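Hi support team,

I submitted a single chain yesterday and got back a structure, but I'm not sure I'm reading the token output correctly. Could someone confirm the output below corresponds to the sequence I sent? I've pasted both exactly as they appear in my results page.

Thanks,
R.
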Amino acid sequence: MKSDPENIDQKLLVLYLLGEISQEGRQTVESWLSSSEGNRAYFESFEKAWTATGRIDPASVLFDADKAWTRMVQHIEQDERDAARTHGREISLRTRTSRVVMLAAAILILGIVSVVFTRILQNRPDSIILASAAEVVQDTLSDGSSIVLNSDTKLVIPKKFAQTSRTVELTGEAFFEVKPDVEKPFIVRAGPGQIRVMGTSFHVKAYPGSDLDVYVETGRVELSALDSIGGDTLKIVLKAGERGTIGWDTGEIRKAGDMVPDELFWVNRKLIFQETRLSLVFDLLRKHYKADIEVKEAAVLDCMLSATFTGESIGQILEVVAASFELTLSRDKEKYIINGKGCGHENE
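Hi R., thanks for writing in. Yes, this is the structure output for that exact sequence:
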């Protein structure tokens, strides 16, 4: 086998270096490595370049191809000068060309990393930063609590939680499922306020320049803000199904309206409909499932649905809707067709 990266999925090599690979993938890479010296040499060269240009510089989540190219070229040229001094000869043009081609392939692979690997741990003296770029990231904290970060989000976590609390700092959007510990409350500092819980699940939006928004899925949370005028701490308690906000500019803290039905869809494909008009239900299904839905009778859109779906297919959801309101559901290729009297016809 020749030492050509086309003989193996390049993403597997990236994930192998990052330690994020499955057992099956690991076996594939190690089999590829052991099959020839050429494969081993290619991998070692790529690993060296990756170590010099990407892995030791975690300061930015986003991948900068120009900077990576410059660092890699400088690194390989230094290797060539060292080799020339060691062996008393110049590196041949053919060798230089082959290395530049290899670097170009490595740059392409690094570009893939910006998509494949959005979970980046950045070390600080007393904390770790968990960040996401373009994709949703899931992880488990040292206390057993689980978190899901939406895109463009950063969570600062202490390397070791304090004896009296578990405090993290959020910028962006995240869903928390906190492991209960009555002696060590879990505190999220975000935007103009903070959230304090003992053990519950909740959703937080805290992008810079925007209001802090909290929705509680289970349990209770305490949402608080510092009054910039009086210096008092303003607090409200939110129960399951409630949401609260703190104004970015005003610092005003209040309970807000009902949750948006698809608020948690990005987390776990959950849709929560609470007396929701079918007109909105169908709009959300079209949005998230890219579904073509045709409704024959306008009165169907006035029906009010109360139901929760988590991970069901579009077909399963529409079957429940049809059964709930005595509608008929059929398909014409990729189109779903809903027919029936709808609501408001009880006396007809």
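A quick pointer for reading it: The chain has three domains: 5-116, 120-255, 265-339. Let us know if anything else looks off.

Best,
Support desk
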